[in-house]
Specification:
Rossmann fold; seven-stranded mixed sheet; 15 strands; alpha/beta; 2 domains; 364 residues
């Protein structure tokens, strides 16, 4: 490993601690790689999207991958018999419903087809399907990750429902609001973690380690090879994005530049009506930004609108890996790297949580 980079082959030299994890909503394997970095064994991974499962298996081919909706996993006793009693049940139920860039409680109970899977689902119900699986498997610890929007506004009632359901099946739950930039990831990515322990364990409340010094995105990418001319050309921005990049200071999002940009002789204001329709966050360039070299990156998303600080271009696959704490040799096509990293949990965050739980709980 370098100071910030690592490779999948490094996992072979990490001592195993004998603890077992079943991970659901596994995506491209961000959580799984974090557990492996902490010495845990992945006994199974569940993912509904065959494309994401393929990315996972391309990088961790020895995994018992269960490609199906989580509801099938709950219902199929034979399929889960070998997965009983894991030490940790892990999952990141898809979070579009609660994203601050989405509709929050307005989408509760609605059946929609999201990019997280190939099947139409009610996303607000998936967390409870996850809890039903916990009831069936009885892990010693349950860990679930979600967006920070889940604790804002009316959605706080949803959080209380989750904690109540976990209590009814025998778990005490703690909520942690964790920013990846505080724990070795060069990215301002704030997420909520539900960490629940069996009542009968007798363990005290979990305490997170001290916050670390933030890592600048330029430092994290410092030792990466220089891009070739062709690679830079492939990462070039379109004409509108190029204009907005030049009008935006490092560290800022493109929204202000877009809102004041004169189009067709009139100025478009974010959130104002144009032709009777309200401008959405997507066409206001809210999720696009020019990174600041001396600060952690803005949050990576599936669309990943982050751009370089000195060069008018999108971030390369290798740079995205560093920002998300993915291994340098993770196998994914260039045009899928932004989606896979943006939809994943940073491995280093899970590594920190897994090591902390082992030290404070499992070793007691």
């Amino acid at each position: 490993m370098t100071e910030f980079g690592w490779k999948l082959s490094d996992l072979k030299s990490i001592p195993k601690n004998g603890l077992r994890v079943l991970t659901t909503f596994a995506g491209g394997g961000g959580s799984s790689m974090g557990y492996k970095l902490a010495g845990y064994e992945i006994i199974g991974a569940n993912e509904i999207d065959p494309r994401m499962a393929c990315h996972y298996l391309d990088n961790m081919p020895d995994t018992n991958m269960l490609i199906c909706p989580i509801q099938e996993l709950v219902a199929d006793v034979g399929r889960t018999r070998l997965l009983m009693n894991p030490d940790i049940l892990d999952g990141s139920p898809p979070c579009s419903t609660f994203s601050t860039s989405g509709n929050l409680s307005a989408d509760w109970g609605k059946s929609r087809k999201f990019t997280e899977g190939q099947t139409e689902q009610v996303l607000s119900e998936l967390f409870f399907d996850f809890i039903r699986l916990a009831k069936k498997l009885k892990p010693r610890v349950v860990i679930a990750e979600n967006v920070s929007g889940i604790i804002k506004g009316q959605t706080r009632g949803y959080v209380r429902m989750i904690c109540r359901e976990l209590l009814e099946i025998g778990y005490y739950t703690q909520l942690f609001r964790i920013n990846a930039a505080d724990y070795g990831v060069p990215q301002q990515r704030e997420r909520i973690f539900f960490i629940a322990r069996l009542k009968e364990s007798g363990w005290l409340d979990l305490k997170l380690p001290p916050i670390q010094q933030p890592i600048a995105v330029s430092d994290a990418c410092l030792d990466l090879p220089a891009l070739t001319t062709n690679e830079r050309r492939a990462l070039s921005c379109g004409p509108v994005k190029t204009e907005l990049w030049w009008r935006t200071k490092p560290g800022d999002i493109f929204s202000a530049a877009y809102a004041s940009r004169n189009i067709g002789g009139r100025t478009r204001k974010t959130g104002k009506k144009k032709g009777g329709a309200l401008l959405s966050r997507s066409n206001s360039w809210f999720d696009h930004c020019r990174l600041h070299p001396e600060k952690p990156s803005k949050t990576l998303t599936g669309a990943s609108g982050v751009t370089h600080w000195n060069e008018c271009r999108k971030m390369s696959k290798q740079e995205l890996f560093r920002i998300q704490s993915f291994p340098d040799d993770y196998a994914v096509a260039n045009n899928r790297a932004a989606y896979v990293t943006g939809m994943s949990v940073p491995p280093r965050i899970i590594e920190m949580l897994a090591r902390t739980i082992n030290e404070q709980w499992f070793k007691q």
